[in-house]
Design goal:
Blueprint lengths: L12 H15 L6 H8 L3 H7 L3 H27 L1 H19 L6 H9 L4 H27 L9 H20 L4 H14 L2
Length: 196
C-alpha cells in the first residue's frame, strides 16, 4: 500500500505568530534561527514551511501583529486616560518594565530597523512603513490632545510626534547603556515636556 504524506499537524496559527513575535523581540532577527524558533512557536518544520514559507515572511507577519497590538493598547489607554496621558503612560510603561525585570526590550520596530537596515531590503522597507504608521498614530493622539485642551504646545503635531518618538527611542538606548536612575527620571521629564 502506498504511503500518502499527510498534511502538517494543525496548530493555532495566531498563537504561533505571537510566540514568534516575542522571540524575535527578545533575540532579534539574525539570532532567531529556525532551530530556535520552531520550539519557541511549538510547531514542526513541515508546519512552518506549509504556513509561513520563510523566516522573512514570518517576521513580516510579526511586525503586522506588533502594530495591531500596540494600536489596541494605545486606543485602550486613550479611552481610559485621554490622548496626552496615554502617550505619557506608554513612556512610563518602559520605566515600569525596567523596574520589574531589570531590562527593557525596547520597540520591536526600532530594534528591527537597526538590525535590518541595508541588510534585508524588504524587511527594512516594511520597518520604515511601520515607523511611519506609529508616527502618524502619535500625531493623531497629539492632535486630539490639542483639540480637547490637554496639549498647548503650538508646534505642528507631526513635529511633536517625531520629537516624542525619537526622544523615547533615545531613552531606550540610554537605559540599555546602563545610566543612573536620576538621569532616566530627568530624560522622562524632558520627554513629557515635549507634549505640554
Amino acid at each position: 500500500m502506498k504511503h500518502l504524506r499527510g498534511r502538517p499537524k494543525a496548530f493555532d496559527e495566531a498563537e504561533a505568530v505571537r510566540l514568534a513575535m516575542h522571540y524575535f523581540w527578545e533575540h532579534g532577527y539574525d539570532n532567531a534561527s529556525l532551530d530556535k524558533l520552531l520550539p519557541a512557536m511549538g510547531i514542526k518544520k513541515s508546519s512552518f514551511y506549509h504556513t509561513f514559507k520563510s523566516k522573512e515572511e514570518l517576521f513580516s507577519r510579526t511586525l503586522d501583529l506588533y502594530r495591531e497590538e500596540v494600536l489596541a493598547q494605545m486606543e485602550q489607554l486613550k479611552k481610559e486616560l485621554g490622548p496626552k496621558q496615554a502617550l505619557i503612560k506608554v513612556l512610563h510603561l518602559t520605566i515600569d518594565e525596567l523596574k520589574s525585570t531589570g531590562e527593557v526590550k525596547g520597540c520591536l520596530v526600532v530594534n528591527s530597523g537597526q538590525e535590518c537596515y541595508k541588510k534585508y531590503p524588504d524587511l527594512s522597507q516594511q520597518v520604515a512603513v511601520e515607523y511611519r504608521y506609529f508616527s502618524a498614530l502619535f500625531t493623531r493622539f497629539i492632535e486630539e490632545g490639542k483639540a480637547n485642551g490637554e496639549i498647548y504646545t503650538p508646534l505642528p503635531s507631526n513635529i511633536l510626534a517625531s520629537r516624542f518618538l525619537n526622544a523615547m527611542n533615545g531613552l531606550l538606548v540610554t537605559i540599555q547603556a546602563g545610566v543612573e536612575e536620576e538621569m532616566i527620571i530627568d530624560i522622562v521629564q524632558s520627554i513629557e515636556e515635549i507634549i505640554d
